[in-house]
# Entry
Amino acid sequence: MAFWLLLCPRSAEKALTAHTVQSQLSMPGREMDTTIMRTYLICLLASVLFITSISMPVAAQQSSSEGATLQKVKAKVAKIGIGEKAKATVILKDGTKNKGYIGQAGSDDFVLRDRKTDVPTTIRYSDVSKVESNRGHSTARNLGIGIAIGAGAFLAILLISIAHLD
# Structure
């Protein structure tokens, strides 16, 4: 009944009022209280069953998301490639960040070599939270730097010319 009140408050309210009036005319006080309590319990049970039926698929999706993350990590490592030009930043599930290049990739793990020391680190795909490619600076960053330099130069020239007008 509570669910029905949420969907159609006016029609449910009229039906509830009509049902209450009929109940009051035909039943004594104690029986009417028992009937109302049963109605509320039935509505509560229906609402709980409805919410449970909605939340079960969500719980099932969470366990499959781990497999999807594993596949995404494997695909990202394969996309970056292997060799000294395959630079990557790997963020593990425990929060550790490793930077280097991908030396080799297997079915369960891959080797990340440090750029400076060339020390290999074997990392399992299941331990990885995120893999980022480090192919240099982004175009937006380079554009922002260029605009900032241009604006700074313009302001410097403007200030110098204003200072020399006096």
Remarks:
- The first strand starts at residue 87 and ends at 92.
